[in-house]
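Good day; I would like, with your permission, to put a structural problem before you. I would ask you to consider whether the tokens describe a fold that such a sequence might reasonably adopt. The full record is reproduced below for your convenience:
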Amino acid sequence: MNSTAAHRLSKVPEVTLIFWIIKIAATTLGESGGDAVSMSMNLGYLVATAIFAAIFLAAVFAQIKAKQFHPALYWATIIATTTVGTTLADFADRSLGIGYAGGSSLLLILLMGSLAIWYRSLGSISVDTVNSPKAEMFYWLTIMFSQTLGTALGDWTADTAGLGYTGAALVFGGLLALLVAAYYRTAISRTALFWGAFILTRPLGAVVGDFLDKPLNAGGLALSRYSASLALFAFILTCILFFRQKPAKQGH
């Protein structure tokens, strides 16, 4: 496949600063939006998970069927993974009673397993090689596991570890800063750094989302989950409309 054809087939965005800004906003929206449906609407974690899982599957199907990169479709699919990740993690941690530590451990195993099988099947887990339906399925499955893990990890750090929402946000923000430094200062695999950053942005978004809507006596700002979700959605839509995103250049 020549480079022009490979570029044309790319349906994931180039990883730039705006990519990470939208990713953090999307993960925060996933937390507030997921909680709005499961808690504010009183539908419960299981029903909310079923709703968001259906949306996630429909979005992934549309993404795989698409012939080219569509920013709105891509980010809608990312948001779908964050919302289903939020309610699924809450269901596992709270309704099934396995706790944040158990949920985080299980999801970490699933995430590592997804990456390992992806690498064994296709020889690479780099986003530069996501140019086939099989690679896309691995890509979205891995992202869904990472988003779910991030929710459990964020809750574990903020609640069980006692750091609170701002403390947890500082921890995950600091870890992301270390990855940025490693990107510019070391020769560590760019693929490893990408997935490390992708995973860490989820718990950061989770604790920021909780900080926005949790009660004042729990360390939050007590904002409406609906208004917070709408504001985040508007911000993401503005970024998509005003900042042109190019499809990633595909590997051979």
